[in-house]
Write a structure and sequence with these properties.
alpha/beta; seven-stranded parallel β-sheet; 7 helices; globular; NAD(P)_OxRdtase_dom_sf; AKR; NADP_OxRdtase_dom
Length: 211
């Protein structure tokens, strides 16, 4: 087993006692997808946390990269996201199963609601977000996923979930860097034992380093 799960400096323990590697490799459709880079990160750099989303269109490629790396499935913390057009009681489960099929896995380590915004035709956003969260809770109960959470949610969005939830979100993944430090949101999450997960774009690294 990779030391990322035995070295406390390399993982965080979430509210449900699941260990999540601190350093994750984000994948996206923006800027292209590199099979070689993902394989190298897994095989040579010790990465064990891979983050993606259905929206990015590279779940099938990640399955190929994991297989090529030779790293056992149980060592990889695999996270993907549910796009708002898939929100709903039944469609959320269908979306998760679709992601599992494309990623060639039987379960996900983490599944996130990608955005708090929904389609303009939805009459009651709050109700849809709450229904979708309940679907994630059921998937957690069914052991289809080990960790459930949200992405890009602000305090007002989290409050909608917290009003009706049985399981408090384990994670809130948000943009964070020197130009965007949401201190109030971070404290809101900390007070409720929601892990604030940092998302940093490589284009911002260029800006930070070379400006």
């Amino acid at each position: 087993m990779a030391d990322v799960y035995t070295n406390p400096e390399k993982h965080v323990v979430l509210s449900n006692n699941v260990k999540m590697p601190i350093l994750g490799l984000g994948t996206s459709h923006d800027g292209g997808y590199s099979h070689e880079a993902v394989v190298y990160a897994l095989k040579n750099c010790g990465y064990r946390h891979i983050d993606t989303a259905k929206r990015y269109g590279c779940e099938r490629y990640i399955a190929q990269a994991v297989k090529a790396s030779g790293v056992p499935r149980e060592e990889i913390f695999l996270a993907t996201k549910c796009w708002p057009t898939d929100y709903g009681t039944t469609t959320t489960k269908e979306a998760l199963l679709g992601s599992c099929e494309r990623l060639a896995v039987d379960y996900l380590d983490m599944y996130l609601m990608h955005w708090p915004e929904v389609s303009s035709g939805v009459k009651d956003r709050k109700q849809l977000l709450q229904e979708t969260w309940r679907a994630l809770e059921v998937l957690l109960d069914e052991e289809r996923v080990r960790v459930i959470g949200v992405s890009n949610f602000l305090e007002r969005h989290l409050e909608m979930i917290l009003e009706e939830c049985s399981v408090v979100p384990h994670v809130n993944q948000c943009e964070f860097h020197p130009f965007n430090n949401p201190k109030v949101l971070r404290q809101f999450c900390a007070d409720r034992n929601i892990q604030f997960e940092v998302r940093l774009y490589t284009c911002l690294i260029d800006k930070i380093v070379f400006s």
